[in-house]
């Protein structure tokens, strides 16, 4: 194990730089100068988004392997690019690293970052590495490209548009519940072994989420252009309200349509948690929530990765969850407060 | 004073968003969606750079006003854009904020960020705000534009090129010495008043540095295109070595040519510090170090903002400081270790 101060900041950057590959045609110059140089293709607009992951707020290194953390840090940024209907092209990564870290630990983090770069076809073109007096912080800014005028905003939904979500919901939140329970057990008895093998699905949802770039490509293949889109990072209820607010509409989503995976449902039962609440307020699923014109119903109704969960309505009706009994329940953004 | 958890993340973003103005023609959509949308002008390349400022590593809130800190966080990023010979266009800002902060404190930080945006003609187009279990962290990514092929890298210097630096050096480092001394006095006797009024120049250099965009514009007006460029963030010696390494050259810089301001010299004497060492290894001056062809000598020799400190030589000669007595002393990158 190599202490960080033995290689220093430039040594560390040199080690990371050596293993980085440039594959995007729009990357002219990557890591190693005062800034990277990019040449976006003609007729393209850029999208840019930034996300910060903070130890003790967004992740707990007790149970989060650094490689997974690096992968997740990229995936959550790519998810924002996907939510604009754009293709990710470059990222820059700034990390502040506690002195207790070894060079090998930092390299493991960057292994995960580079794995995600390969998976999403993104170039790592720059960054900053500094010390930290407290925990690890990872700040990633992602760039993407989209044909001029084709970016999808939160604000384009109209009444009667179908409201769709990719994949399934609630898993990441229940993964977190499992990790927190096992941590408490382990803190009480450091000799105990965490029982994690029983929960592969929800743990993967929490520790190593994927951005739904696959769906962006599928929608293009189907000729479906969402009228509005957002990624589900703070829980479904919060995101539906964001689309409604930006678009000036209301929404109706139906309890019986909300997609949940069987392993998620089982863990919810084990923890005595209402699965509907886990889907609405759980957060960190990184699925895409989007609206399409009613005319696209036939194209999406049997799509394996997409569920039609409801539709937009006039603003005056508000945003409601319709229970199995047909009762409307106003949606509230419980979400997740980092400042609580 | 308003506690952060009273307004929450969305409330805080809303407050910041309300006061942000968009002035760049290339900004299509700013804060408020999953990503910002940008449309770079035809024939332009983009440059992108990211910098992280961490409490306890890069700044100390005991003496650093939040407004200055916000300004500085933008300026250091713009300095990287300037060092590519580009004009800054947009920034995104991610902050992790300790619970002890009030809403008003965060707004003060963003006041400084917005002041710098106005000063450098940059749009604040996105960001992320999260909690922090420890100190304040500010991560800024800056974008800039430059005509295709006109970005200046570290790697273009040739032997005989003149080596130039803007402004003067060592001030920021001596400003830090003053702040650290006064902090010690204050910690020993909390009733004492810090003696800061005597040191306006070096304190401004430390607390509120400017990116040298003015010089970028002046060089364009003069028709001077640097062959290589870097910003002086880690001390002159480290930056000269970076240019030499990237360009495959050596360098000779002359002690008697190094620019230092009189107030900086006075503080160096007061602290019994060698002013040459402060210039070579002090860091945080955010001046520009660049090379130009010998033919540009006449254009720059009397320029008030630019000093010719030496010239590049063949790689085999190495990088040396030439003393008044004509003795060569090899340059070493002392720089600044965040991991120490």
From TrEMBL, chains A, B:
Chain sites annotated for binding Mg(2+) 3: 34, 80, 231
EC number: 2.7.4.16
Gene3D superfamilies hit by this protein: PurM-like C-terminal domain, PurM-like, N-terminal domain
InterPro entries to which the protein is assigned, alphabetical: PurM-like_C_dom (IPR010918), PurM-like_C_sf (IPR036676), PurM-like_N (IPR016188), PurM-like_N_sf (IPR036921), ThiL-like (IPR006283)
Binding site for ATP: 127-128, 154, 233
Pathway the protein takes part in: Cofactor biosynthesis; thiamine diphosphate biosynthesis; thiamine diphosphate from thiamine phosphate: step 1/1
More details: Reaction mechanism of ThiL seems to utilize a direct, inline transfer of the gamma-phosphate of ATP to TMP rather than a phosphorylated enzyme intermediate.
HAMAP family associated with the record: TMP_kinase (MF_02128)
Name used for this protein in its record: Thiamine-monophosphate kinase
Reported function: Catalyzes the ATP-dependent phosphorylation of thiamine-monophosphate (TMP) to form thiamine-pyrophosphate (TPP), the active form of vitamin B1.
Family named by the database record: Belongs to the thiamine-monophosphate kinase family.
Residues where Mg(2+) 2 binds: 51, 80
Domain PurM-like N-terminal: 32-146
Entry keywords, A to Z: ATP-binding, Kinase, Magnesium, Metal-binding, Nucleotide-binding, Thiamine biosynthesis, Transferase
Binding positions for Mg(2+) 4 per the UniProt entry: 34, 49, 80
GO molecular function, one term: thiamine-phosphate kinase activity
Species name: Hymenobacter psychrophilus
Residue sites binding Mg(2+) 5 per the record: 234
């Amino acid at each position: 194990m190599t202490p960080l101060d033995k290689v220093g900041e430039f040594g560390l950057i040199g080690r990371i730089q050596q293993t980085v590959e440039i594959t995007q045609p729009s990357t002219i110059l990557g890591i190693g100068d005062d800034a990277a140089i990019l040449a976006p293709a003609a007729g393209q607009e850029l999208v840019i988004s930034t996300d910060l992951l903070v130890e003790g707020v967004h992740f707990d290194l007790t149970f989060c392997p650094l490689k997974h953390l690096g992968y997740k840090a990229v995936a959550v940024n790519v998810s924002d690019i996907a939510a604009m209907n754009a293709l990710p092209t470059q990222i820059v990564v700034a990390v502040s690293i506690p002195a207790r870290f070894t060079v090998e630990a930092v390299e493991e983090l960057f292994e995960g970052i580079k794995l995600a770069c390969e998976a999403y076809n993104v170039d790592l073109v720059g960054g900053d590495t500094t010390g930290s007096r407290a925990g690890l912080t990872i700040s990633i800014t992602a760039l993407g490209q989209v044909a001029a005028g084709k970016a999808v905003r939160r604000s384009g939904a109209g009444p009667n548009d179908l409201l769709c979500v990719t994949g399934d919901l609630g898993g990441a939140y229940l993964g977190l519940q499992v990790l927190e329970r096992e941590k408490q057990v382990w803190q009480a008895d450091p000799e105990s072994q965490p029982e994690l093998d029983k929960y592969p699905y929800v743990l993967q949802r929490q520790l190593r989420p994927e951005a739904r770039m696959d769906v962006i490509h599928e929608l293009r293949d189907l000729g479906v252009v969402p009228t509005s889109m957002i990624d589900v990072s703070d829980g479904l209820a919060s995101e539906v309200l964001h689309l409604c607010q930006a678009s000036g509409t209301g929404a109706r989503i139906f309890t019986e349509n909300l997609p949940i995976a069987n392993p998620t449902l089982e863990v919810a039962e084990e923890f005595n948690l209402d699965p509907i609440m886990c889907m609405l307020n759980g957060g960190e699923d990184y699925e895409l929530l989007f609206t399409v014109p009613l005319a696209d119903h036939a194209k999406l109704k049997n799509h394996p990765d997409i569920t039609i969960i409801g539709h937009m309505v006039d603003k005056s009706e508000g945003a409601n969850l319709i229970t199995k009994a047909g009762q409307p329940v106003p949606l509230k953004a419980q979400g997740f407060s980092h400042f609580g």
